[in-house]
Amino acid sequence: MDYEEQSLILKKVMDLKNEPLAISFTNEEIPTIEKQKISICRALKLASQGTSLVIDKDMSTCPGGSMYCGFSEPVSGEQKRKLQWFLTQGEKLFNSITTFERMRKLTSPLPTGLAEYMVISPLEEATIRPDIVLFLCNPEQACRLITLDTYFDGIPPKQEVIGALCHTAISYSLVTGFTNISMGDWTARRNQKFESDTLFFTLPYERMDNVIAAIPKCSAGKADLVIPKDFQHD
After folding, report:
1. 143, 148, 173, 234: which is deepest, by most CB within 10 A?
2. Environment class of residue 107 by beta-carbon count within 10 Å: exposed (0-12), middle (13-18) or buried (19+)?
């Protein structure tokens, strides 16, 4: 089954309003997709509406996005002090620099130096194998997706919901191989005007076959719900 077919099935079954996104990291240029200067959270918004993008260290306009997606080293020295001030006194997302540093230390490692390019496109237009597939969906759709994802193995994914959108929606699943559901971060949601009911569901692509295979078997997909009489309630 190719990427286009997978996308069409998921969009139809899940009634998705936004395009499922194929996100790939590669060292090979993709000449068919034009690079442009953009923040990664903006790229996610545009790709969910049908635009394909290639981002590298020179095209990423957000220092945080560059760091969380591996294009730059974690900041230190004076740059770190500026970031601490910005997040505590500017954006006011953390009560103190200790709170911010605690979050950084307790979350998963960054994919620093992983690849030269990140490709973000609608899944149906993917030209290389995705590393992860990102769904911008509502809570009901996320519930159905996580049920399909765990239908065959029943293993609860270890999730990480705190941190920058580019971390929780991209780099966490990329590094750990775990499915993740996050709300993103408040700054990205506000700046990109994501709808209030949007969740970010990230599926490592190696789990895609099982999700598709579960659709006809699982009631979160297309299987009919059967409730024995003894289980029925008035």
Report:
1. 173
2. middle
The whole-number pLDDT of residue 3 equals 97
> First CA to last CA across the chain, in angstroms?
43
Concatenated DSSP letters of 170-207? IIHHHHH---EEE---HHHHHHHT--TT-EEEEEEGGG
Do the Cβ atoms of 27 and 116 come closer than 8 Å? yes
Burial zone of 41 (CB within 10 Å; 0-12 exposed, 13-18 middle, 19+ buried): buried
- Tracing tokens 């957000």 back to the chain, one arrives at 62
Q: How many residues does the chain have?
A: 234
- pLDDT score of 234: 62
Q: Where are the domains of the chain?
A: 3-74+110-214
Tens of pLDDT along 28-66? Answer: 999 888 888 999 999 999 999 999 999 999 999 999 999
Cα 59 from Cα 35, distance rounded (Å): 7
